[in-house]
Design goal:
Number of domains: 2
Number of helices: 8
Structural class: mainly alpha
CATH superfamily of the largest domain: RNA polymerase sigma factor, region 2, helix turn helix motif
CATH architecture of the largest domain: Orthogonal Bundle
Strand content: under 5%
Helix content: 55-70%
CATH topology of the largest domain: Rna Polymerase Sigma Factor, Chain: A
Order of helices and strands: EEHHHHHHHH
Radius of gyration: 32 Å
Distance between the termini: 114 Å
Oligomer: single chain
CATH class of the largest domain: Mainly Alpha
Shape: globular
């Protein structure tokens, strides 16, 4: 029988037995997965889009973009936002303030385009209604109310309408609106006062036409 030499435990050196290397258990080095700045930017922008696409949609409508163009307008807003995403800086008002500035420019551009290239006298409202299935009574009433509001808002000059929408619908304070639009606080109050009067008059005229 072959005799194997033995070594007392106290003579064992770490990792060897009789100078013969012993394999140690080792854990693989876990390195954090590298994520490129482009991937981080894409994820952040996707979160921004999902959280605020409805905000962009409804404010384009409130600023006069018709239903037939609002989808393209929404896409344009986010194309611009994506291109300028590196410029975004939250100054306490969140991304909505920044997005609204883009919404306002897109709505203004759409309005200028319609003036230069008029296609449908009613702005496409008749076409939109023809493509809508007959709704239930309550849905129809809501749509009629929104149509009246949209028509009344359309009579208000765009700069005043922007102030009115931010204050009455988005519930921003006057100082917040002043910062978002980059105008003096007194101008906000002045535009809001006039816009309210114009809106009330337009709604009254609309009710008299029924």
């Amino acid at each position: 029988m072959t005799q194997y030499p033995t070594t007392p435990p106290e003579s064992l050196e770490a990792g060897t037995v009789d100078a013969v290397p012993v394999a140690r258990e080792s854990r693989p080095t876990l390195r954090p997965m590298a994520v490129s700045s482009n991937e981080v930017r894409a994820r952040s922008f996707r979160i921004l889009y999902d959280a605020h696409v409805d905000f962009v949609w409804r404010n384009l409508r409130r600023l006069g973009v018709p239903d037939s163009e609002v989808e393209d307008g929404t896409q344009e807003v986010f194309v611009v936002a994506h291109r300028r995403f590196h410029e975004f800086e939250d100054r306490g008002h969140g991304p909505r303030a920044w997005l609204f500035q883009i919404v306002l420019r897109v709505a203004s551009g759409a309005r200028r385009h319609r003036r230069r290239h008029p296609e449908v006298p009613d702005g496409g409202t008749a076409i939109d209604r023809e493509t809508i299935d007959p709704p239930q009574a309550d849905a129809f009433a809501r749509r009629e109310a929104l149509s009246k509001l949209d028509a009344a808002l359309a009579t208000v000059d765009l700069p005043r309408r922007a102030v009115l929408v931010l204050h009455e619908i988005e519930e921003m304070t006057a100082p917040e609106i002043a910062q978002v639009l980059g105008i003096p606080l007194n101008t906000v109050y002045s535009r809001l006062r006039v816009a309210r009067t114009e809106l009330e008059q337009a709604l009254t005229r609309g009710g008299d036409d029924l």
